[in-house]
Amino acid sequence: MGEDTRVPGRTYRGYILTLCGATAAFAAAAPTMAMPVLFAEIAGDLGLTLIQIGAVWGTASFAALFTTLLGGMLGDRFGTRRTLAVICLLLGLFGASRGLSEGLGTLTLTVFLTGLMAAAVPMNLHKVCATWFTGKSLARANAVVSGGMAFGFMLGSLISATVLSPWLGGWRGVLFLYGGITVLLAIPWALTWVSPLETEQRARGAASPSLWQALAHVARVRDVWILGIALLGVGGAVQGLLGYLPLYLRDVRWAASRADSALAGFHAISLLAVFPLAALSDRIGSRVKVLIGASVLTACGVGLLSIVDGALIWIAVLMAGAVRDGYMSVYMSTVIELDGVGGTYAGTAIGLALTVSRIGTLAAPPLGNSLASFGPRMPFVLWSAMAAFGLAALAFLKGRGRGRQVTPIPEG
Predict the structure, then answer these.
(1) Helix, strand, or coil here: 329?
(2) How many angstroms separate the CA atoms of 226 and 403, rounded?
(3) DSSP for 375-405?
């Protein structure tokens, strides 16, 4: 991985952005969202109970607690291209190893290892955006990453069980396929050029901050913590919903294909809305106002699921899904643009905010599912309240506008 410091032009930046979107879709999102729709087949093959399947699903979020922050710190210290090349290689190998599972123990272990690597992908992709793009270009670049995630989530939930599993001879073949694709993505990351920001820093003789210097610096930025708490609520609500929705719809006698289509619809509308929401945050000059509106819509959509039936369920699901990835796109831009963050500390700042939010994504599924004993709709009440909590946290942000703008990068 020799250093290449050639000056990139628009075409190469487009290539970088395409690679970011592809990595988000095929390395991080699709292999993750394949699991909920494959769980019925996996449970039947390995003899697992519903509670055990829930524990396996929560294992990935638990694993993420250990690497979300560390992954961002490594990206800041060693550069995103090296970090993403290694992560994609290990993520592909660990992801494929899930297909070798022979029981609860090996499935839990391989899902844990996969979760360790998968959690380190998003903040490094958004750091790539921070080191190659700025201003309105930054928001659009982050939207490509979030859109890639939305596309991968939609694709994984739509075709993994109904198309790929029959074609590849079962769930094991699906996981092997996703693992192989992810390993291949390590190659282009290993060969990418050094970003303009990193090239400029080296020209000035500025060394990358050490792991602990970066963490100490970012930990003093109050709004990073506030944004982490906001995502704890909103992200926890969405995580709980995604794991429970297919099971809930089957419980109310929806056909399996229709239930999976609802989950795919959630991600499809999210994909359609991600770019308009990013553009809206630029047009109105405030990222936070978009985050507030998205939080309201998420809380209302999840809350509606606790009271509606039939076709109205589709409306509630689409309301909750419409802003999911648009929220994340604007959220990442907000973190990067905070005073004291910028491209230099983007990985650590995003990693810290996401680590705080992981508390919500880890706790929301088991807490919500435990309420199902009082009625199948009760989990939605809890998750709607969590989204409202995330909305309330935004009131404590010091800055209500765009936040700090990253130093512009000349268009080559």
Answers:
(1) helix
(2) 14
(3) -TTHHHHHHHHHHHHHHHHGGG-S--SS-PP
pLDDT tens for 155-199 read 888 889 889 999 999 999 999 999 999 999 999 999 988 777 666
The sign one gets for the Cα dihedral 359, 361, 365, 367 is positive
Nearest to 114 by CA among 37, 182, 18, 205: 182
Q: Is residue 379 part of a domain?
A: yes
CA angle 289, 297, 134 (to 5 degrees): 40
**What SS3 state is found at 406?**
coil
Structural domain count of the chain: 1
Q: What is the DSSP letter of 98?
A: G
Which of 244, 2, 214, 1 lies closest to 123 in space, CA to CA?
A: 214
Flag whether 330 is in a domain: yes
Query: Could you list the residue range(s) of the whole structural domain that residue 164 is in?
Result: 10-191+209-394
One-letter identity of residue 296: V
Residue 198 falls inside a structural domain: no
Where is 24: in which H helix or E strand?
none
Closest CA to 95 of 170, 28, 149: 28
Structure-token pair, residue 35: 């699991």
What residues contact residue 317 under an 8 Å CB cut-off, 6+ apart?
245, 262, 265, 266, 301, 305
The DSSP code sequence of 185-226 is HHHHHHHPPPPHHHHHHHHTTPPPPPHHHHHHHHHT-HHHHH
DSSP 290-318: HHHHHHHHHHHHHHHTTT--TTHHHHHHH
Task: Report the CATH number that the domain containing residue 33 is assigned in CATH.
Answer: 1.20.1250.20
| H or E element at residue 3 | none
3-class DSSP state for residue 148? helix
Residues in Cβ contact with 166 at an 8 Å cutoff, skipping those fewer than 6 apart: none
Distance CA 366, CA 240 (A): 8
How confident is the model over 333-382, as pLDDT tens digits? 899 888 888 877 888 898 899 889 888 888 888 888 888 888 889 999 99
Phi-psi region of 253 (alpha: psi -120 to 50; beta: other; left: phi over 0): left
In a domain, 177, yes or no: yes
